[in-house]
Design a protein that fits this description.
The chain has 144 residues and is an alpha+beta fold. It is built from 4 helices and 7 strands, in the order E-H-H-E-E-E-H-E-H-E-E. It has a 7-stranded mixed β-sheet with strand order 1-2-3-4-5-7-6. The longest helix is centred in the middle third of the chain and has 15 residues.
Length: 144
Amino acid sequence: MKISKMTVSHLDRVCEIEQQCFVHPWSRESIEAELNNENSLFLVACENDRVIGYIGMNFVIDEGYIYNVAVDEKYRHNGVATALINELVVYAKKNNFCFLTLEVRQSNENARSLYSKFGFIKAGLRKDYYSLPKEDAVIMTKYF
């Protein structure tokens, strides 16, 4: 598996994964706009030149806000999300971030457990943040 910076050439496959993973997927235009945003970093995980997962974040000075972590369902439980999150943690440390933060469905125990392994802790709750089904979001933050 190879991790690299997302480019326009990855967009079709990233959009497929986005559709597969989220009730309210980002549009191709929204993802493409982030590729041109100097305050965003989007990475892809590829196997045999095929995108199997991606992660994206926005940053403001020394604060990182993770948008999405998504892995093709056929490649889950193979360390793809772990590798992607690790790359962002390394980037954050290298760039002297104070923290990385994200929201995750309260019921998504697998994701919450994974983030915890990287030192993310529960920092708050957003009531009814998600729809279909309506659910609270747990705010998880890793402080450096």
